[in-house]
Each structure stands twice: as C-alpha cells, then as structure tokens.
Amino acid sequence: MNQQNETQRPAKCSGCGITLQTGNKELPGYIPEVAFEREPVICQRCFRIKNYNEASSVSVDQDEFLHLLSGIGEKNALVIHIVDLFDFEGSLISGLQRFVGNNPVILAVNKCDLLPKVTNWNKLRNWMQQRCKEHGLRTAEIVLVSAKRNQGFERLLETVSELRGQRDIYVVGATNVGKSTLINRLISDYSDLEQELTTSRYPGTTLDTVKIPLDDGHYIIDTPGIVYPWRYSELVERRDLGAVMPENPLKPAVYQLNEGQTLFFGGLGRFDFIQGPRQSFTCYISTTLKIHRTKLERADSLYKDHRGELLTPPVAADMDKLPQWQRHEFRIGRGSQTDLFISGLGWIKVNGTEGAVVAVHVPRGVKVLTRPSLI
Ligand SMILES: Nc1nc2c(ncn2[C@@H]2O[C@H](COP(=O)(O)OP(=O)(O)OP(=O)(O)O)[C@@H](O)[C@H]2O)c(=O)[nH]1
Ligand SMILES: [Mg+2]
C-alpha cells in the first residue's frame, strides 16, 4: 500500500513546476511529507505565495531556459508569446524567431486593462505589428488580452483553435508578463481541471515547465519567464515593485513644461526638458509613483539632498542598491508623435510638434528608447 502511494506521488510541483524534495527546507522544491496528502500537491514556496502573498526569491537558471526555448523549434508546437503592454519593448523576446523555427507564433499582448480608455483597437494592433516587424518577429496573429480582467479571450481562443492542429501549446515570455495568470484563466473557464498555477506580483514565480493536459491528449505548457536585466521590475527592491508596476488603469499625467524644467519619478528616475518651445508631456507611469517638478538647474542638488526622503521610493536604505543613474539624451524631431519609453517604468509622450531636446536619467542598464506614440 505504502509503496503504491510512493509511486503515485507527483514528482513536480503543480504550481511552479519545480522538482519536489522532502530533504532540505532551504532548497527549492521543498515539501513537507504531510503536504503530499493535499490536493493539488504544491511545494512550500507556492503554498506560501498563495496563502500569504510571500515574496519568492529563487532564481531560474537562464541557460537551461534558453535551452528549453531552443528545443521548441524542433517540436511541432504552437507558441503563445505573451508580452506586457506596459513594458512592450522590454518584454518582447526579440530573438524568438530563431528559437521557434517554423512553428506559428501568436503574440498575446497582455494587461491591456492598464490602458486608459482605448478607442481604436485596430490602430493599436497595427502599432504592435510594426514593432514586431522592426524586431524581426513573424506573428501569425496579434491578440490583445487582459488575463486579469478576462478580456480578449474569445479572439485568443478562436486563433488558437485555428492554428493549433495536433500540437502542444507553449506559453513563453519574460518574467511577470502574466503567463501563468492567462493559463489559469484558460483552465478554469475551459476545462474541469483542478490545477492552479502559482502567480504573484514578483518576477520569477514559475520555476520550471508545467505541462497541463488538454482534452485531446495534447498539452499546454507554462514556462519560467526570461529575466531581462533592463526592466525596472527586475532591478528595484521587491518592496518597490508595487510602486513601479501599475495595477489599475494608467491615469495619464499631463505636464506643461518650459525648457529647463525637470520631472522626478519618485527617486527612481528623472526627465529633463532641455530645449524647445513650451509644450506638454504626458507621463504614463504608475499612479503610485509621485511625480515631482523642479527646475533643471536645481535638479542635481535636489536629488543629492532629498533622495530617499522627498524623492522616494526607494527609501534611503535602498538607495545604493540600484545602479548609478545614467543619462540618455534624445532629440525629438519636428512633427513626430513620439514616446520616450523606459522599460518597466512606463513612457512619456511628447505632445509638441515643434521638436524638443530631452533627457532621462535612469539606473544604468535600464532600456530607454524612443518610439512612435502608442496612444
Ligand atoms: N493589470 C494586469 N495585471 C496582470 C494581468 N495578468 C497578470 N497580471 C499580474 O501580473 C503579475 C504576474 O503574473 P504571473 O501570471 O505570475 O506572470 P508570469 O508571466 O507567469 O510570471 P513568471 O512566472 O515570473 O515568469 C501578477 O501580479 C498578476 O496579477 C493583466 O491582464 N492585467
Ligand atoms: Mg508564471
């Protein structure tokens, strides 16, 4: 009897995919003996995330992950690549085409609930198509979804059933884009499975692949997120994640600025309007991050004297945990509709059409770029 129980024990955690072990509490995959009697069987870390919202801190071996990704090219698979609308360029896997071979890719742009009221979805989709083209990513379809608010799923499912044939579905993407949340939505609405993948606001929740059986004998496969070091979400302390990652729809903050004015985003970043006629700039950043306006000539000393206090987060104790700031200057051309995109922090839309010289200061390594305006 006992032996039979042994053999029926699942080897992997059904929440995050890690190989289970009962030997060492300190190592990933630990599960107390008694927890094998619970249904579904999950590791202690998943149990804590689910029940106490605890921060997890296990890092996934990136080489192993890239190996997994490149394995998809040799399989007959449908790939759903999820990106985070709020961090589009920061979460796009630009080398994906190399990995997936000839398998079709659906680009699911998640968290579209974060956008302020959208009037023209087609225009958005075209914008995304354009960005994919620039990154050499061929997509069979682009779908806008919100896994959290259950938006866009009809179209996603239609596309999946059109393209799937007799294939497994791999869900891939950077950390924290909502892969597991999206699969949970599919499981709970479209199957009788009890399984629930672990999700959390902290990047790096899923630790290994999780295969979920579908009715037809094939699988949908959750994967660990790729860690991209250029995203604020990977750089800030866990306690500050809530400040940079919006949970509610963005409230665009419009600033009429003269040249020589500066905006601070808490103590996490800074925007300078260096040169150009008076014009407005719209900040699409989390409403939890306070914007502080000052004169450019005073900005350096303000930061020096008030970082960690007036300019927070981060708090003073965490200030030096972030890389030193690096300044990026941009010349915005006349007549262009441009966003200044900062990976994981949001973007600033330049509304003037007369041109401007601007700069942003962000921790070294953060991806900053200009792009045609999203909105
Ligand atoms: N606003 C918003 N948040 C979402 C949406 N989908 C997921 N999230 C949130 O994004 C965070 C990450 O979700 P997960 O499903 O754990 O993301 P993941 O891609 O599986 O992350 P890893 O396992 O770390 O790679 C959680 O806080 C989710 O609640 C969405 O549609 N809208
Ligand atoms: Mg996950």
UniProtKB/TrEMBL annotation:
It comes from the Bacteria. Residues 66-229 form the CP-type G domain. InterPro entries: G_CP_dom, GTP-bd, GTP-bd_ribosome_bgen_YqeH, Mito_lipid_metab_GTPase, NOA1/YqeH-like_C, P-loop_NTPase. It holds the Pfam family YqeH-like_C. NCBIfam families: GTPase_YqeH (TIGR03597). This is CP-type G domain-containing protein.
